[in-house]
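Worked example

This section walks through a single chain of length 409. The input is the sequence exactly as stored; nothing has been trimmed or padded.
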Amino acid sequence: MADTAIDYAAVFQALPGMVALLTPELVYADANEEFLRMSGRTREQVVNRYLFDVFPDNPEDPSANGMRNLAASLNRVVTTGERDAMALQRYDVESAERPGEWEERYWSPVNAPVCDAQGKVVLLIHKVEEVTELIRARERAPGDRARVLEAELYTRARELQEVNERLRESHAHEREVALALQKAMLPAPDPIGNHRAAVRYQPATDALNVCGDWYDLVDLAGADRVGIAVGDVVGHGLAAACVMGKLRSALSAASLVADGPAQALDALGLYARSVDGAENTTAVQTCVDWDTHTITYSSAGHLPPALLCRDGTVVFLDGATDPPLGARPEHIPRPEATLDFTEGDILVLYTDGLIERRDEDIDVSLGRLATALTRHRRSAPELLADALLLDLLHHGRVTDDTALVILRL
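Given that input, the structure is written out below as tokens.
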């Protein structure tokens, strides 16, 4: 069986249910035999034609809303890349034998995406089950009870769809608010002196486009010093983003007055004890000094920053790692380490969503990052940031948020 080629076109045509393939523009790419038979259409009448040219609403029924509901469902699938099951629909169909005459029909549709390697929706699977005969059988059943149950079933299905519509509208509004909040908390950084960092922020695909990861860049006291930090609050969504905002602001302020990254993280750890949801937050703070050509750093349970040297070698800053916030004794100071750099080296700070994958050893993940950095070592910071996201976030399913900061030294 393993050596037998499967004719998927034949499988599609033989599927027992009504199934059609649509483009994201809602043009029929194909339809199986059952779909054509049950809809009373030929292949020529369907394929390569716009969905609602083939199946418009009944123009004589002012209450008809099947076309609107179906379009909304299919467009949601295109936008979200997620499957959408619709409530029971009344969607009348024009008779193929008697043009101008409309037949009362009831359908139960499910729409699903077909995505390419980059996650873009390239086709829509439109699977439909016709339940007209079931509805009519109930209507023919003796007694008022069957008719009452049928009416209640249909009414409840319509109510469910209306509730789902309101929930989607509420979710869309919440997402707009969340994005505005996130933009305010994580703005594009301004150039610091002669130095400009490339930053990227990418929530997990199944989150509300907000997350608990953060980055921060701040001009420190001194001739030419800058503080760079990244951190990761446990969880996704608005709750994690709110905790992130508090911790980011606190660490940014602490780095301005602290005597080095370790002291700044100590102050953040004390503050985090009073913030619900800040437990087990990880963060790394660095101080880049161009006068001494050194990077001083300290990590609170975070993955090590990477230094991409001009010759293509990668050095991980793992000499000052300690437990996450709230997971260490207060009386013991955090460790701090210093590393020399050469002009033209590149410093890379990131959160675990960039490299970590389930059931994979962390050394393998770090090795993949080092390989990608070496491969793109001649790229400018902005291009390097895009290359890393492209290389690393498509290595398996991404389930965590990502923040990334790249600075040419």
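What to look for: The longest helix spans residues 144-185.
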